Amino acid sequence: EMIDGIRTFWITAQPGRHEFRPGQSTSTWGFDGSYGGPTVRAAVGERVAVEVTNDLDEATSAHWHGMHLPPDMDGGPHQMIEPGDTWRAEWLIDQAPCTLWYHPHPHGATERHVYRGLTGLFYLDPAPGSAEEAVHEQLPHTYGVDDIPVVIGDKSFSDGGELVIDDGGNEVGLLGDVVTVNGVVGPLLPVRTERVRLRLLNASTARTYSLGLPGRTVTLVATDGGLVREPVALEQVRLSPGERAEVVVQLEPGEEVMLHSFEPDLGNVVVPFAVGANDAFDVLRIVAGSELAPSEDVPGELTSFGLDAASATVRREFRLSDREINGAEMDMARIDETVEVGTTEIWTVINDDLSPHNFHVHDVQFEVLSVGGSPPPPELRGHKDTVYLEPGRAVELIMRFEDYADPQWPYMYHCHLLRHEDEGLMGQFVVV
Ligand code: C2O
Ligand code: CU
């Protein structure tokens, strides 16, 4: 709804009961429902406001993952919403059109809040009349018809069908043995067009997927922060927790294909089976109708962008080990890094452990300059806000801190394996 020129949304975090399988319900949490959340949409250039009410019996927050916005609107651990309260965030959509998401960020409890179901998508649509809009309209773009949200979360259930929240001592956190899409076990997607765009979000708290269609490729058109420069045919797309990818799938009339998660290549992990590297899943059954409406060809060029490494004036290094970054656990009262507004920086991030981590930076979309000293693979050449860290390897990220100087309120960077984040693998920076 538009109020005084501001596109305004109201969402409520609430407890409920949800059926992942028909006839079998479990207690869950959701935004405006028992599980998941509404897809929020706004266009680049619009002012938006979201009023978030907390009807849970504990404090939570609503963080706009991947959004460029002022730090006090970010919904991180410094913007907690007490039970019964409403928090209003308002900002201007000022970044490339893309698929973002929102989820709670209470320090020490994020894994549990996300796992119970507090997760929604936040689409940034292209500005009317922009070049990106023309591309977007050539891609499948009818919500729920040929432009499909695919929010993936792994769960484990007790014998009685209740969600298992605490599964103890796994190195990466909670690894469920049941994969759900949009809150459904064993989902089926009927398709009536020649092409379908899947907006893939790994909303799992710990598990990394490697998604693809057996025996054929998918066409990658966008990563976390927007369109890639040109479409890329991929056999598999690896997504660690928090990462997104948009892929276009082409179908023949009457055929049935299974979006599958293959055993993910997690790099040189010391105990592969314990971190999910040996797990494979059927994720989404896609069934094409006997007649398919024509879809346009995917354009050969999608967008252009690029930060020049020579323009970076500051370098920083972040070493992740156990639950510490550069030897320190998260401290809400400590600012770890101070960034000057208007600078372009290169951050080198290193996983010093023999198990998986990843790295997410608030406020910015970055570009990956290198992975293990080599140029990034095609799927990492788009705008990103979260990147997988193979053990022992460094990634170099370039990012620009354009505006929103505010010495009062920090942004976060952290591992998006949420138990790691909860246990301290997080730091804070201010832009001044
Ligand atoms: Cu998706 Cu700091 O989080
Ligand atoms: Cu981690």
Strand content bin: 35-45%
Count up the domains: 3
Please name the CATH topology of the largest domain. Answer: Immunoglobulin-like
> What global shape is seen?
globular
Q: Specify the helix fraction band.
A: under 10%
Main traits of this protein?
binds CU-O-CU linkage, Immunoglobulin-like, 4% helix, binds copper (II) ion, 432 residues, single chain
Describe the structure.
There is one protein chain. The chain is mainly beta and 432 residues long. A hairpin with a 2-residue loop joins strand 2 (6-21) and strand 3 (24-31). Helix content is 4%, strand content 44%. The mean pLDDT is 97. It folds into 3 domains: 2-125, Immunoglobulin-like (Sandwich); 137-293, Sandwich (Immunoglobulin-like); 309-431, Cupredoxins -  blue copper proteins (Immunoglobulin-like, Sandwich), CATH 2.60.40.420. It is built from 3 helices and 31 strands. The strands form 6 sheets. The protein has a 7-stranded mixed sheet with strand order 12-11-10-14-19-16-17, with no helix packed on it. 47% of the residues are buried. The protein binds CU-O-CU linkage and copper (II) ion (CU). CU-O-CU linkage binds at residues 63, 65, 103, 105, 242, 360, 362, 412, 414, 416.
Helices and strands, with pairings:
Elements: E1 2-3, E2 6-21, E3 24-31, E4 40-43, E5 47-54, E6 63-65, E7 86-92, E8 98-103, H1 110-115, E9 120-125, H2 131-138, E10 147-155, E11 178-181, E12 184-185, E13 188-193, E14 195-202, E15 209-212, E16 218-223, E17 226-234, E18 237-239, E19 244-250, E20 256-261, E21 281-293, E22 314-321, E23 324-325, E24 337-339, E25 343-351, E26 357-361, E27 367-371, E28 386-389, E29 394-401, E30 411-414, H3 418-422, E31 426-431
Parallel strand pairs: 2-5, 4-9, 10-14, 13-21, 22-25, 24-31
Antiparallel strand pairs: 1-2, 2-3, 5-7, 6-8, 8-9, 10-11, 11-12, 14-19, 15-18, 15-20, 16-17, 16-19, 20-21, 22-23, 25-29, 26-28, 26-30, 27-29, 30-31
